[in-house]
Amino acid sequence: MSPTVFRDRGYRYYFFSREETRKHVHVHGANGEAKFWLEPEIELAKNYGLSDSQLAKIKELIEERLDELTGAWDSFFGG
User: Which ranges of the chain does DSSP label H, i.e. alpha helix?
Assistant: First the structure.
């Protein structure tokens, strides 16, 4: 199961239900996908095909919507 938190600018922001416990979000778009840690700070964990400029825009949106992402994580995983 991989619940979608939101979609924005052609990207899907979601979690995998059976993965590590450290808060993170997966982002998938037409050109690739990435994984970002949400704690202790927002940081790129993995990148598969996204450009530096795409990653910068994604990270900026994650920063803007961090409360929404961490709230969704806590709600979904019971944190």
Answer: 52-64, 66-77
DSSP-based three-state secondary structure for 73: helix
Report d(CA 70, CA 63) in Å as an integer.
11
pLDDT one-digit tens code per residue, 5-30: 999 999 999 998 778 889 999 999 99
Q: Read off the DSSP letter of residue 41.
A: S
The range of the structural domain enclosing residue 40 comes to: 4-73
Give the side-chain half-sphere CA count within 13 A for 38: 25
Domain count, the chain: 1
Q: What is the pTM of this model?
A: 0.93
